[in-house]
# Entry
Amino acid sequence: MLIIADNLNTRNKEYQAALKNKDRKAVEAMAKELAAAGADLINVQVSTDGTDDEDALPFAVEAVQRGGGIPMSLDSRNVKALSKAIPFCQEPPIVNYVSADDKNSDEILSLVSRTKSSLVIRALKGTVPTTLEAKLLLIEEHLEKANAADIPNERIFADPSVVHIGKGSGQEHLLNAHEAIIVLNEMVEPPLNTIIWLSNVTTGLPRNLKPLVASSYLSYMAGAGLSAALVDVKDAIVMKAVYLIKTFRDEITFAAADLA
# Structure
């Protein structure tokens, strides 16, 4: 299972200050720390709405690549910003994400295809769909468009969209996301990848409960065959769950000392 560090986001005040001040060394140091913490990739987010991405994203990507030295996921729907940032990646990144809400989805698909990048297709249309059927329908629509743009399934990550467990029908959402992973693994040929943003599950919970809920849900989703997850790699409890998941999948060799 691929572990993507989600720590460089708009809620990270230290990171946002480094972007504002163009403090390259600070961003490089943060990326180095995330790679050392066990990230397989680092997700780079510089805004929530694409504002200033054309300037900030290439700067951040170059610094993160230098500091982390590992692949990246670029969290932007700004095609111009992505076009400027992707050349700084040592290998084609994951473009995170495209959804039914993106009016420029054709441009994003074209860019992903040209650059041989991978792509997250997210089940989202205005709001996160509640039912299993609605999640799968949106993913199917995106998958067809991505394939038509010459993006093969092996470079596609389907995101059923998880929501806060404490919000309204949150438990139903989380169950249906789990079922979506199972269905996608069983029904789609050739196989594609699946992904979730783990921190969305724990939004709004007391701080002391977040690691327990996050690590438990990650294990639950791993049992359904999850391929990748965006996680807080500085959360020791979550990363212990990651270690055990990779152990049980025989992706790494178990050593009790690693959990101490």
In short: The chain has ten helices and eight strands. Residues 92-234 form a domain with the TIM Barrel fold (CATH 3.20.20.20).
